[in-house]
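Recap quiz, item 2
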Amino acid sequence: MFQSNTKSFLQFISLILLQAFLLNNVNLFGFLNPYIYLLFLITYRFDNNPTLLILIGFGMGFLLDLLSQGAGGHLIASLAIAFLRPYIIQFSFGVNSDISMGMVRGTSLSNRLLYLVLMVFIHHLILFIVVYFNLKSISIIFKYTFFTSIFSFILLWISLGFFKTRHD
Amino acid sequence: MRQIFNALLKYKNTSLFLGLLFISFLIVNQRSFYHKSIFSAIGLGISSNLYSVSKGVSDYFNLKKINGDLVKENNKLKALELIYFQNQILKQKTLDTFNFEVTSAKIIKNSFNKANNYLIINKGYEDGVIEDMGVISTDGVIGVVNESRAHHSSVISILHQEIKVNVSFKKNGAYGSLSWPGIHPNKMTLDDISTINSVSVRDTIVTGGMSAYFPFGIPIGVVSKFVQPKTEGYYQIEVDLFSNLTQKEFAYVIKNKDLDEIKKLTSDVSK
């Protein structure tokens, strides 16, 4: 238990540092930045306390906004995705939603893809809505959400592959 | 009681989320100027509608006093009109050559007890009131329009610590800037008057013509005390306002017809 908590804590810190100092400066094609810190919120054990996850989401977003001088987009987006996660799990895994490491092993590929796509898309949509916060920018919000989601999705899928080999 | 606790425990995640979301919006409001302006526009829309309802009720009870004030002002205007007739001055011509237009408005929300005060008036851009217009009352300056919606505008009061009004002495035209130190709603500070000008108590202060907001010569207040520095420099002057900003019902919005031109010039110079 202690070991897994320490592991989670190190993962949390390193993901935030990686995101704030490296990945926020990628600017592929001028505007694409992948948001890999979602990995923590995605792989958090399904049977762990969801209340704690909401607090973690809040803290994670807050630290990221502090480090990257953001207005508060990460804060609200990661808080919201941490709150919505149980419903997304319920929706995408159905009866298998009680498998604790469902994102890494023991579930079918289509369920995992659906879960990952929903998490990434909803998070990015909320993030860009908060950042632009204006009905007139609705087209630019969807454009950024769409392209950034694709980029984040690819990188997250690759990182999840690493996760799998390490745990097996 | 037990049921309330049970309900709280049942929805603890939702209530925690909503609480944190509220905190997040506070943080966003604090950190980003862009979001702050959007929130304040939404807030202005809601509060101006609420205040006009409550003001409508309370006004009914003040009608007698307001009628008295209006009669007084009418008398004054009537006298002026008679003088004009007597002097055979073509009023329309005078109005046409004067650079400022006046629109009357009603104050529906007035604050004077905060560090930075705002007012709301019942005229908006559909009535021709836009940002950066000056607002005066019957006996002095009230402030500058800050933001206008369709039928309401918010006005930065001169009782706001970040606003400075260009003013000058009536007797010799020495000009400086008037600001509010934030303590008493009647006491202002006058800065930037150089010690080469003579100053005495009871000197009248009027608006200066250096700003685009107000025409020259609206009486503002009198010097109540001043400190002369030992070496050369600037006076520290305290000014008592003529107008009592805590009891205002009506205001006049002043539009400078040349505002766009002046703004353009200022931005050209600052380039």
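Chain A touches chain B at residues 50-51, 54-55, 58, 61-62, 65, 71-72, 75-76, 79-80, 83, 86, 130, 133-134 (CB under 8 Å).
Residues 44 and 53 of chain A are 8 Å apart (CA to CA).
End of item.
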